[in-house]
Predict the 3D structure of the following.
Amino acid sequence: MSLIDRWQTSMMENYATPGIALASGEGAVVVDEAGKEYVDLLGGIAVNALGHAHPAVVAAVTKQISTLGHVSNFYVAEPTIKLAELLLTLAGRPGRVFFGNSGAEANEAAFKMSRLTGRTHVVASEGGFHGRTMGALALTGQPAKAAPFQPLPGQVTHVPYGDVSSLKEAVTDETAMVILEPIQGEGGVLVPPAGYLTAAREITLAKGALLALDEVQTGVGRTGHWFAHQAEGVEPDIVTLAKGLGGGLPIGAVLAFGRAATLFQPGMHASTFGGNPVSCAAALAVIQTIANEGLLDHVKRVGERLRRGVEALGHPLIKEVRGAGLLLGIVLNAPASGALTGVLKDAGFLVNAVAPHVVRLAPPLILTAEQADSFLAALPNALNTVTS
């Protein structure tokens, strides 16, 4: 019996049945249980920042689990503190850090922090995705995901993404927090107009509301910056991280600055596995490798190579390429992303149909120019197959 057959008889149907059972991986290449190789252009949905089995992560995790594993919240271990210090250094501002296990957990923490301002109203964006736990789902602006679980925690207003006027109208003196993604990843790799985050900062400051930026997908080098908002020079009150931070190990983080950093008091919030030394050791290895190997510049170069290569095809099915760094959306002129994903899979490339018209690329940050070129060489035939 295959792994997929076993999945269908033992796993809950919270996701659709996976199409491939993977057995191993190295760098940006994965191998399925039949031995077929694929260039991984999804990276575990932007999680595998250094690809698979990266020596730095393997060494860090091996050393830490061999030395000191879980310590609980009653004690502290150096990797946790060292990671918090490093994240604040990358942010370039003094603050405080909370560690959880995922992006949803990080956004839940941000949601709870906002309630400690004494206000309860929150503004989020339509199409935004902040997780599937009840609080994070309330922030998520995708009604189909929320509908089966109503009622969710209330007083969340969703406004059109990228529309400054709508944001300004929605934020009042009663608003506790505005939460936005610098790029909507799950929403279809949507990029807001230039200046949108700056406007959000000005609006929240004027109304005394916190500005939280969900960098779960865009953080840790994904766009060619440590954090995507740094490209616009904005200073949010809260930044949430996860996905690429652990390089494959589960970890989420909330960075808080100014008054937001002092909102939580002992006993108000916790996470049993949050700040686990092994996950923190992996995250330290990820960040140090990105810095030591100049991957931020590499991400910009390879991302631009992919963007220009796709645009240069001039294929009638392709409308545009949007995104930044190695978070790109190939926007199609027809709802054919599912079919294109299937054809590319057969050709040995893993991509994601994030929306009916959009194929998402979020490969490991170590994707080589040669691997990018191999995808560009295979794409025309895949597009022709879909449109024939």
User: Anything to note?
Assistant: The first strand starts at residue 22 and ends at 26. The CA atoms of residues 34 and 147 lie 39 Å apart.
